[in-house]
Amino acid sequence: MKRRVVALLLAALAGLAEAVPIAVDVGHYLERPGATSAYGITEFEYNQSLAAVLAARLAVEGVPVRLIGWRGEMAELRERPRQAEEAGAGFFLSVHHDSVHESQLEPWVWNGRALRHADGFAGFSLYVSRLNPQLDQSLACARAIGAALRDAGLPVATHHAAAPGLGLEWADAAQGVYYYDNLVVLKTATVPAVLLEAGVIVNRDEERQLAGAARRALTADAVARGLRGCGVMVSDGRR
Ligand SMILES: [Zn+2]
């Protein structure tokens, strides 16, 4: 009996040792926290909250997670994939929340504060760079995450295909994946890298959902499913 327990323990440890760390990058930093939501919250705060849920979700499956930029200190973009790779990460996922072009924002006042919203835009989107040396794997993972988010009932944010001054090319429109070649964290990573915009925080309805535990859990589940599907996340069998 005792020997069996030891054998099980060794098997579990071997599984942990085999699991390749995944880097979860918290987009933006305290001094420049990204977009401001319809209700006046910074994108960085949303990124940090979702990254925490996602990291916990992956850890439950026995996958080591390296959080990048967690304390809001990471001003240098190239430093993000570098730190991730130095920590042995085999995959880089940058977590963001989406906004729209300036010209598409409408003013409104909430709690006495002048803010802006764009209720006509919603959904998630994913990004890969053709300058990343592991484009095929990056794309496979972005597609798998997108498919899982679609299965969970979330819409794709299509507005970046026709955004004023940007107009990104689709890599896979059905799964919400765009090419964004010059995104620094994606093109300077040497491991497969994907950027996720989890939802549109200038949409007043969607922001309420994005601030809730249910939507964060749903997104984290979909990411875990996607990363398993594309083969970068090997679960050690614990659930
Ligand atoms: Zn962002």
Portion of residues in helices? Answer: 25-40%
Q: What fold name goes in the CATH topology slot?
A: Aminopeptidase
Element string (H = helix, E = strand): HEHEHEEEEHEEHEHH
The CATH architecture category equals 3-Layer(aba) Sandwich
Strand order in space, largest sheet: 2-1-3-9-6-8-7
Whole-number count of domains: 1
The set of bound ligands, ions and cofactors reads:
zinc ion
Task: Compute the average pLDDT.
Answer: 92
Q: By helix and strand content, what is the structural category? A: alpha/beta
The CATH homologous superfamily is termed Zn-dependent exopeptidases
Q: Can you tell me the residue ranges where pLDDT is under 50 for at least 5 consecutive residues?
A: none
**Into which percentage range does the β-strand content fall?**
15-25%
How many E-type strands? 9
Give the biggest sheet.
7 strands, mixed
Helix count from the secondary structure assignment:
7
Based on Cα principal axes, name the global outline: globular
By CATH reckoning, the class would read Alpha Beta
| Radius of gyration using CA atoms only | 18 Å
**How far is the first residue's CA from the last residue's CA?**
23 Å
